Amino acid sequence: MNSFRRRPLASLIGALLIGSAPHSVLAATPAAAAATLAHINATHSATAKATGTDPLFRYQWHLLNQGQPVFGDQRPRPGVDLDGDILHTLGIRGAGVKVAVIDDGLEIAHEDLVDNIVAGGSHNLLNGSNDPTPPADDIDTDHGTAVAGIIAARGWNGLGGRGIAPEANLAGFNALSVSDGSKQYVDIRYSWGDGPQARAMDVLVGAVNADGVRASYSSSGSAVWVSGLSGEYGFQRRFDPHPETFKELYALLATQGPQRFFSPAIVTTDLSGCAAGNNRDRTRAPQNALDTSHSKIDASCNYSARMNGTSASAPTVAGVAALMLSANPQLTLRDVEYILATTAVQVDPNQAKVFYKDTVIEPAWITNAAGQRFSNWYGFGLVDAAAAVERAVHFTPLPAMQDTEWTVYDGNSSTIGGIGSPAHLTIDIKQSFKVEGVQLYFAGTHKNPRNLRAGLVSPSGTRSTVMTPFSTLDPGDGFVVFLTSSSAFLDEPSAGRWTLEVDDMLADNGKEQLQEFEMRVVGH
């Protein structure tokens, strides 16, 4: 994927940004390219080399993957990375972009973060101060500090590794340390950035009222929400108890390795010192060479190599979003999401479908009627930082957002039958625009929803599995799916009949009812 690294240097002249096949090329006139390269060389002469001086950079396979030894059971396949090192070499490093980390805290004095911290920009929701650093005796609240390091650890300073956007600015909010739900909701609403304080955000929890989102969703300076996909088989959708909530509609796989479910650890910042965080003495054996105070490569205990899965995916994509915003500050949230989706690289293209009794319960990759590929496991694919930034530079802003608002099915209930005999509820959408995302709510009388499979079929015939059977949902007196979403219909036309199908994988003759169905479509 990164074949440009083997091209002679002369081939780089004449381009401002060069990505590798299948990545994109942003052409420039020779004079403009020469001027750009001269400027970069003048301003970044001491830091232009991709290898730099950060001692742990060589283990950061997500930034530059040459098949080198990493903190994992096997070496990654060369070339499977974010394709972002060329951006760093060209001076695109996130400068001028503020990133808010909403997590369990953030050590703002950490040696590899302190130079990127926004002075007075953080907030401690427990004591009201501007310092969300975890208490010294709370040794396990290291997640937010690790997230921050993936996004924007300072580069080329001789310390640790480097972030994806190593010149972006950071602010921390310890929302996950607050147990008072009402206070947490209000503070998170503030922290999510209805205003211009934070340009790109890594968000693990919280809710935003739909009215606030409508005000900022299409304006430059709005926040970017990122969600990764975990490597668990089970119920794959995130539900929210607030139907008015507008979550992000794009889930993108950050760089998680070449094999399915293979995720080498990402090196990042840890709580400082050997008494807290992941890198400390414990009664168990260390998991890797950074997981102990006796580490020969990190005697300071300031770094960790245990971040993976969704915890690493979300800040990875947030870091790429920061690079995009630094290249084009006029991008809106919708612009960023759309660019990430349409420049992603398909991974695991031969992913197998999952069957039960000769019936597909997980379809693997699908191609919708607009030609967009999507997978419930991988989203739109592997984030391609070089291609995303190239697109961002020349991107024509999306038209104003169109919103159907919530549309309610008002007909009779439908029987949830067995395989091949699903319940059907339909909603007709009159507004016509290109789909960016779909949200839905449904409810029924079924007492064991873990047996159910649910799919949403678009007017164009694309079927998105929005609920996989044999999940971890608990049985109860009926079921309610408060809010889920699908990104599988990107760029399809919205107008026409949408059909919700729900069947029971373990029932021969159904008697339970699908009673309620609401949906909302947004796009342009």
From TrEMBL:
- Which InterPro entries does UniProt cross-reference here? Galactose-bd-like_sf (IPR008979), Kexin/furin (IPR034182), P_dom (IPR002884), Peptidase_S8/S53_dom (IPR000209), Peptidase_S8/S53_dom_sf (IPR036852), Peptidase_S8_Asp-AS (IPR023827), Peptidase_S8_His-AS (IPR022398), Peptidase_S8_Ser-AS (IPR023828)
Q: One of this protein's GO BP terms?
A: protein processing
**Keywords of this entry:** Calcium, Hydrolase, Protease, Serine protease, Signal
Task: List the GO terms this entry assigns under cellular component, sorted alphabetically.
Answer: cytoplasm; endomembrane system; membrane
Catalytic positions? 103 (charge relay system), 143 (charge relay system), 311 (charge relay system)
Under SUPFAM superfamilies, the record lists: Galactose-binding domain-like (SSF49785), Subtilisin-like (SSF52743)
Instruction: Identify one Pfam family in the record.
Output: Peptidase_S8
The signal sequence is: 1-27
One MF term from GO for this chain? Answer: serine-type endopeptidase activity
Identify the CDD domains for this entry: Peptidases_S8_Protein_convertases_Kexins_Furin-like
Its family remark reads: Belongs to the peptidase S8 family. Furin subfamily.
PANTHER family assigned to the protein according to its UniProt record, in alphabetical order:
NEUROENDOCRINE CONVERTASE 1, PROPROTEIN CONVERTASE SUBTILISIN/KEXIN-RELATED
Q: What is the official name of this protein in its record? A: S8 family serine peptidase
